[in-house]
Amino acid sequence: MRITRRTFLRYTGAGLGTLAVGDRLAGALAAQDAAIPVGAVYPLSGALARIGAGIRNGIELAVDIVNTAYPDLSLPLAATAGLPRLGGRKIRLVWGDSRGDPATGRAEAERLIERERVVALIGSYQSAVTATASLAAEARGIPFLNPESSSPRLTERGFKWFFRTGPHDTTFTKLFFDLMEDMKKRGHRISRVAILAEDTEFGATAAGVADGFAKVYKYDVVARELYTSPPASLTAEFLRLR
Question: What is this structure's pTM?
Answer without folding.
Answer: 0.76
